[in-house]
Amino acid sequence: MYGFQMYGDRYNVVRCVGLGPGPLGLVTLETLELLERAPRVLVRTARHPAVEELRGRGLAIVALDDFYEREEDLERVYAGIAARVAEEAKREGQATYAVPGHPLAAEATVRLLLADESIRVELHPALSFMDAVFPLVGFDPIGGFQLLNSSDLGEGGGRLLNPRLAMLVAQVDTRLAAAEVKVTLLELYPPEHLVQVVKSAGLPGAKCHAMPLSELDREELFDHLTSVFVPALTEEDIYDFQRLVDLIAVLRGPDGCPWDRAQTHETLARHMVEESHEAIDAIQREDPEHLAEELGDILLQVVLHAQLGREEGTFDVHDTLRSIIRKLILRHPHVFGEAHAGTPEEVIAKWEKIKASEKGHASVMEGVSEGLPALLYAYKLQTRAARIGFDWQRGEEVLPKLQEELDELRESLLEGGPGIEDELGDLFFTLVNICRHWSIDPEIAVHNAGRKFARRFSYVEELAAREGLDLTMLSLEELDALWERSKRSEEPW
């Protein structure tokens, strides 16, 4: 029994009764007696074999199928039916409401009634359609399973899937619904994975049709009494985040890989940088296949560090996920809260204010990691300073500073001494400022320059080989001539 509200001297009671998955013989004696004592019985749908039998016994049956005819959206159908049942309970003091199967198994109207604090709900259980399906497919549910409605597996439904558990998809009533289920399942399951279409479970003549997942919607097998049973995948066929976490734990385990077992946070640090640069290279090359691979390598580094943290007792992958999820929600109040941000600039400004309030930073420079690549580190420092107004108004104003730094470097080079490194650093820092004002990523600019040099030099080598020249024996003037020919080969005609 659940929460209720009292009206006068009567309770507004809804007795939710399960009719089981088939004929009246599957209904419990207690349920049958309750139905026969009711002045009338509201049924969600008359499309159930027990309903006609109840009418044959003289029961007053009120079918609510007209809600399906009036509304196209199922949520509105269920809401309307639940409101109708609750209204009867309030008017008459009680209502008897019968649903197919078990009242708590894939029954949206009952969930809505349970949430209604103005009525009191009594549940009278029955066999569910699952009790009829599992013997047909030979499945023992003791190991766990997942129950979903076909409508759950529309667009975005893949996030609900757990391929380590068997799954029963209810109410696959049309080929279109079967097609949507198939498309979603194919996100995780191989096309050849065998599934079973179960028709009329609990009724005489119930049948199972086994087929590969890829053929699920090929035939007209579907009606309102059709479900699809999807066996669990073996671990070897699963490619998800949890399997990656498990694999890393094995590699780091006593019988794992000697290299992986020898790693520490410190030894792995350079690999994180290298993999990130390789991902950037794939982005620049517009190579999505390569990018997918490189992002996997970055994810490997993340999970390796999380496994090390788990072994040390400092943190694990769940702490990492919890941290980033909380941060994303907290720092996007314009998405997950009531704040407003109409432009990227407003978003950044709000982000910085939230970060400052979270960590109580005394300096706008705090939080910029010194472990970043040098050009990116300089870029972030300058960006932080610019947000409080410490910046040139226009990019052209930086150019005299560039000339100043060049003059100071020239003087330092002529004089010699330890100041050369500082002057070179100042020059690079100013060049980064120029990049920032013209919205150019300095890392990408330098990287592209390196790629261009490598491409042109390879052409120089090709020219030399074609003409029988030994590069090591050529003068600088001859090498420069080949270099100019290489540059001209890239000029548009």
Span from first to last CA? 84 Å
The helix-and-strand class reads alpha/beta
Give the overall shape, derived from the CA principal axes.
Answer: elongated
The CATH architecture of the largest domain comes to 3-Layer(aba) Sandwich
Low-confidence stretches: 1-9
Q: State the total count of DSSP E strands.
A: 12
Largest sheet: 5 strands, parallel
Q: How many domains make up the 3D coordinates?
A: 5
Q: What is the CATH first-level class name of the largest domain? A: Alpha Beta
The CATH superfamily title of the largest domain? Tetrapyrrole methylase, N-terminal domain
Descriptive report:
It is built from 19 helices and 12 strands. The model is unreliable at 1-9 (pLDDT under 50). The protein is 51% helix and 11% strand. A hairpin with a 7-residue loop joins strand 10 (194-199) and strand 11. It has 493 residues and is of the alpha/beta class. The protein has 5 domains: 6-127, Cobalt-precorrin-4 Transmethylase, domain 1 (3-Layer(aba) Sandwich); 131-235, 2-Layer Sandwich (Methyltransferase, Cobalt-precorrin-4 Transmethylase, Domain 2); 241-330, Helix Hairpins, CATH 1.10.287.1080; 361-440, Helix Hairpins, CATH 1.10.287.1080; 444-489. The chain is elongated.
Offer a few descriptive terms:
19 helices; Methyltransferase, Cobalt-precorrin-4 Transmethylase, Domain 2; 493 residues; alpha/beta; 5-stranded mixed beta sheet; Cobalt-precorrin-4 Transmethylase, domain 1; 5 domains; 5-stranded parallel beta sheet; Helix Hairpins
Task: List strands and helices in order, with pairings.
Layout: E1 6-7, E2 10-11, E3 13-18, H1 29-37, E4 41-43, H2 49-56, E5 61-63, H3 66-70, H4 74-92, E6 94-99, H5 108-114, E7 120-124, H6 129-137, E8 145-149, E9 166-170, H7 175-185, E10 194-199, E11 207-212, E12 226-230, H8 241-251, H9 258-262, H10 265-284, H11 288-312, H12 317-330, H13 333-336, H14 344-359, H15 374-386, H16 399-415, H17 419-437, H18 442-466, H19 476-489
Parallel strand pairs: 3-6, 3-7, 4-5, 4-6, 8-9
Antiparallel strand pairs: 1-2, 9-12, 10-11, 10-12
Helix pairs in contact: 4-5, 8-11, 10-11, 15-17, 16-17, 18-19
